Structures are given as structure tokens and as C-alpha cells.
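Good morning,

Both structures are done.
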Amino acid sequence: MAETATFGAGCFWGVEHEFSKVKGVLSTEVGFMGGDAENPSYQLVCTNTTGHAEVVHVKYDPKKVPYEKLLEVFWRVHDPTQLNRQGPDVGTQYRSVIFYYNEEQKKKAEKSLKEEQKKHSKKIATAIVEAEEFYRAEEYHQKYYEKKGCIENLFK
């Protein structure tokens, strides 16, 4: 039975691309979570007034890929010590956040954060928050790198 995981790690285009390559990931969608507006558009989220984060919504087969592996990908694809930004992208929509769907995910996320903190001299800014409603982004954002082409191994 498929399970769901949702991560915010900066601009969702590259993050989705990386998660989509993981064996055991059944599907990925990009969108928004963690804000106040219903059915926000990309333009509205970019005003930095909705409170939403850009996220990747991952459906996965836990028999083929454990949640811990998804957490490894999450930590690898961004700098979790940056607060409300990733590289040149600045705003709360680019924050580092793990949205959990149950207590097991929450515990695993908290454990992984403690382990990841040991690798950084700066404090990790990643929030671990209970999942809220996921709002799918406009179609042109879905599988953006596959549509537009990208540099392989973008995050290595």
C-alpha cells in the first residue's frame, strides 16, 4: 500500500526531479502546503503573504523504499541551515520543512534531523510540522525539468 511524504526544500522543480528518480517512488507532484489561503496559485504564493511552502508531494511504496531513504534525499538536495531561502531564492515559500502524516514519520524525521545536525556547524532551520492540505501547483510546474530539460545530477 502506498504512503505519502511531503517535503519543502526550496524551489520545487529540482527537488521533484531528484525524488522522482528514487526507486520505489510511485509518483511526485509539486504544490503548496502550510499556509492560510485555499487553492493558492503560484503567483499568490510568490507574494510571500500566504504562508505556504513550495513542496514535493511523494507517493511511495514503503516495501521498496523506506521513509528514511526519502529523508536522506531531502537532506542531500538542499542546505537545511538556510532560513526561508535556498541559494538565490528568498522567501518563506522556500523554507526547509518536513511535513509528517503520522507519529512514525514524525519520530523518524526528528531522529534524522538530530543526525543531520551533527554534520553542520550552523543550526539547521528545518521545521518538522504536521501535514496539512496539499494544493497542487499549476500543470506547467509539474515535472518541470523533464519538460524543459535539466542538468543531470543537479544536486551532487
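Second structure follows.
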Amino acid sequence: MKYSIKEFKEEYLESAVELFLTNYQREKEKSILLPSEIINEPKHILNSLKPQVGNPGVAVFKKNKFVAYMQTGAKFKFKGQITAFVPEYSHSSIEENKTNLYQQMYMKLSSEWIKENINLHIIGHFANDIELKETINQLGFGAILSEQVRDFSPVNVKKNFVVYEEFNPTKLIDIEIEHNEYYPQAPIFIKKNTDRTAILENLEKHRINGDKCFVYSIKNKPSGYFIIGESAVDGEGFLLKKTNTAQIKAAYVKPAERRKGIGECLLQCAINWAEKNGFERLFVEHETANYYGGNFWRKHFKPYLYFSMRYIDSVK
């Protein structure tokens, strides 16, 4: 089947938005908690795609019909490498011959990235698009992040631990340092800042933003906590921006206290707070390689989006 692949231009924006929203609606049918705001206000996607025009991008046509597109979003440094990022809204295709379309688009775009010495590639894609997920895996990508949502149905709490609200940042520094020291360990291998001053500043930002912190303590020392607040406009969860969504922004339980039900109690407090304050869903983003945290989130939430990464050797 022959397709013509052209450079993505501004004149293709409306067709790209229409194609993306068709696939978003398909994902929403499988992940019913996704909001309708994106569909009702398509300018949000249009305004996000428009600044990318001029970056390496492709539009694919079958005869004169627009059938697929892939557009480079931000370029940034990640893991010491210049990275090309394709957000979830920066690509889409019709269902017919989807695998082949994505293979051709990535082949074209990756050749452009290599010319700029960009060897790290990241793409966001819907979790329930099985064909696309398999295609991306076959192209050499592996998932690194997952975005998940849940409703306010109660959690199966094994035991009612005493959980309280606390947001004196100085009382949370030590456990947050321990939390950040957890990430460089196997199998996550992500370096986090453990500087006390930087951690205090970050915790203070949560307090100023109105986020809430629920804590479980032993002998007056925090042994587990969840930080929850409104999903940030400039943070994770692009598709959930300004959709009345609450987000779990940080969570940690000390190793000795895991698998006792403390996480479930903290999660139930977060659910109760979100429901009481009129939010419509609860959102979390996590590293897919996080053995303890990832398994907990997968038990209580449903994925709607993955970010997958591919690193390739320099050919120059």
C-alpha cells in the first residue's frame, strides 16, 4: 500500500487534531475516567501542536487523504543525552494499516533526529491501544513512565492505621531524603536530589500550592506519607490539565512498614480528600520499573498512558 510522506506544515494542524481526538475518544471508551474537556475544547490540542511546527515532523497521505502524523515536541537533556520527545498528542493515525504507518513515520523522523545527534527518543502513547503499543515495542522502545487514574470507590483496607494531616515541611525532610535515596537503587536507577535545602524548598512549594500531606508515624517520626493536590498545570498529566483532577504528587512508605496496609490507608485518605473537595478523579504518574510503588499503583489505578524510550548507538 503506497503512502506519500510530507513534511508537517501548519496547514495540516486541524486534520491532525481531528485524527488525535478520534483516537482519544477510542481510548476514553476503554478508560472511561478520562475527561471530555479535550474533545469539547479542541483548541487546547491545536494550541499545543502549533508551536511544534518547524520541528522535524511528518504528515502521511493516502492519495489526498490525511491518514497519519508524527511531530517532534520538545528537545531536552535527559540521562545526559539530548532527547527527542513526541508527546501523546503529537502523533496519531487511522486504524487501517497502523503498524506500517508508524514504522514509516518513525523511520523518517529518527533519521532526522540522528542528523542532530539525538540518540534518545521518547514517545507518549495510549495504554489501551494494543497494536500501537506492540508496534512501539517492536521499534525498540521500552516503557519508562505510566500515567494512571481511578475513581473514588473505597480501597480494601486491611487495618485501620492512624493517619493524620501534616504539612510542617521540616518534619518531612528526613523521610523525603530517604524517599529520594530509594530511586537510584535497582531496578529504577534514577538519581534524585538529596540536598536538605533543596528538599525543604520543594516541600515548601507543596505547602504554598495548597497540597495536603497525609502521614503515618511511628514514635512521632513519619514512616509513610502521601502528598495530594490539584493536578498541576505545568506538571505531569497533560490530558488532565484544568479538568478538576486531583493528583498524588509524592508517596513513600518505609521498607519495614510495607505490605501491612499502610499504603491503602494513606490512599483512602487521599480519596476521601479528593471526593470531599469536589474533584472528579484521582491521578498518579510513576516509573514503570518501580517494583514496590509500581505494583501498588497498578493494583489500585488503571493506566491510560505510557511513555516509552529508546536509546540508540551513535552511527557517526
